[in-house]
Amino acid sequence: MLAPYRDVLSRPGALAFSAAGVVARLPISMVGIGIVLAVSGIYDSYALAGQVSAVLVVTSALTAPLIARLVDRHGQARVMLPALAICATGLTALVIALMTRAPEPVLFLTAVVGGVSGQFGSLVRARWSAVLKGEPAALHTAYSLESALDEVVFIVGPAAATVLATSVAPSAGIVVPLVATVLGGLWFLSQRRTEPAPSPRQATGGGSLLRAPGMLVLIVVFLAMGTIFGATDVSTVAFAEESGQKSAAGFILAVFAAGSLVSGLLYGARHWVRPLWVRFGIGMVALAVGVSLFVLVHSLAALAAVMFVTGFAIAPTLINGNGLVQELVPAARLTEGLTWVGTSLGVGVSIGSSIAGVRIDAEGSHGGFLVVVLAGAAALVATLASLRTLRARHLVHLAAEGDVPAPAQDQVHPDDVSDEPAEDEPRTP
How many helices (H) and strands (E) does the chain have? Predict the structure, then answer.
């Protein structure tokens, strides 16, 4: 199982930029829950905690696609170094505001500045696409590796943020990711040898990627998925507190991510025959069914068990979603495309945490888990509604690669083509 991973990591510079990317994106799993723990602990309000977290994530959602487009045009280091400086300034100011119990508007202002950042996960995947160009099987393995590493981040991050916030200081769960994003970001951006070459302006033009067929529906699906994750984070913290073990929240969320980590590694070690859009749909059905069980549990042990099993649907679905982006956007705008789905996931997290926070203040953790169930249903509906479009774009992508004739867009139907690939169809992830 490990042989495919050893192969991709043996490529020149690959291990270094992948490792740096892990450190640089540690904040994605720590800042959100760190803000929730700090604000709820200092200001005694889950609603305010969810709102401050949401402001930071929404700001990131508004700025990340623009930053990604500039990265495609001008290069990663040239664009990301200033963005990293702005983000670090905002998070530092947020920590100071929390330590001094500043007025609530100050929290929102600092969260806005702290949200001005790019997505290192997209930058890492863009490097893999450049290093493994023309090797779809190896790229599938690399994308699977990064999704598994994302889960490592989500295993370590929430647990560390919870321990820091409950045992050291309420704001400590934000300080550590601040340091990680600065050190990891500088380490990653200093590796210029593996940085993808920027594309000329005309190659990255053509208007918004939201107009690309299939991208908008994929973004909606990722938005619903993010809502699941955001509502789950806040609801788990509240559930643990109601159980008298608030510090256990990080462990429960780590178990959720651990299930995803295991499935991601197993999934990436195998080369799959079925098209991406089919596997993406299957993964979303499994995820929606799994999260619907959260509301039924009544103990931390039961919640951990259900989360571990449900976690098996996360990494493969995210891997397939990122793979679909390659079929939907021009190669010269891959970083922007990956950032759009990553951003929509982040926006969903902010929506989920904000809504769940309000429902928790009103009804307790049960109200928060009801938000998770509704988000799972929305994600499933959005996925089923998108499959026809995703399948059509899959066939167009194969035609562009010279593998099958391009069908007319208005003639594509899910029953037109077998799930099995043509004899000469590449075994792409």
Answer: 16, 0
Q: Give exposure, 315-348, as e/b (b: 16+ Cβ within 10 Å).
A: bbbbbbbbbbbbbbbbebbbbbbbbbbbbbbbbb
CB 339 within 8 A of CB 287: no
Output the six-digit token pair for 103.
């007025």
DSSP letter at 37 equals H
Say if CB 8 and CB 189 are below 8 A apart. Answer: no
Q: Which of 385, 425, 145 is nearest to 277 (CA)?
A: 385
Return d(Cα 91, Cα 110) in angstroms, integer. Answer: 7
Distance from CA of residue 36 to its chain's centroid?
19
Per-residue pLDDT tens digits of the chain, which is 429 residues long: 678 889 999 999 999 999 999 999 888 878 877 888 899 888 888 788 878 987 887 888 788 888 988 998 899 999 999 999 999 999 999 999 999 999 999 999 999 999 888 889 889 988 998 899 888 888 888 988 888 888 777 767 777 887 888 888 888 889 998 999 999 999 999 999 999 988 766 554 556 777 777 788 888 888 888 899 888 988 998 899 888 887 788 788 888 888 888 888 888 877 787 888 889 999 999 999 999 999 888 899 999 999 999 999 988 888 888 888 888 887 778 888 888 888 788 778 778 877 888 898 888 889 999 999 999 999 898 888 888 888 877 777 676 665 544 444 444 444 434 444 443 344 333
CA distance 263 to 313: 7
- The CA distances from residue 116 to 23, 53, 54, 58, 99, in Å, are 18, 13, 13, 10, 22
Residue 115: name the closest of 181, 49, 61, 174 by CA: 61
- Whole-angstrom Cα distance, residue 360 to residue 38? 17
How many Cβ atoms sit within 10 Å of the Cβ of residue 184?
22
Which position has the token pair 């075994």? 427
Q: How far apart are CA 32 and CA 49, in angstroms?
A: 9
Model confidence, pTM: 0.72
Question: CA 42, CA 34: separation in Å to the nearest integer?
Answer: 12
Residue that has been written with the tokens 């943020």 in this structure: 161
Q: Kindly provide the residue ranges of all beta strands, DSSP E only, lying in 141-204, ordered along the sequence.
A: none
The CB density around residue 39, as the number of other CB atoms within 10 Å, is: 28
Closest CA to 117 of 178, 73, 158: 178
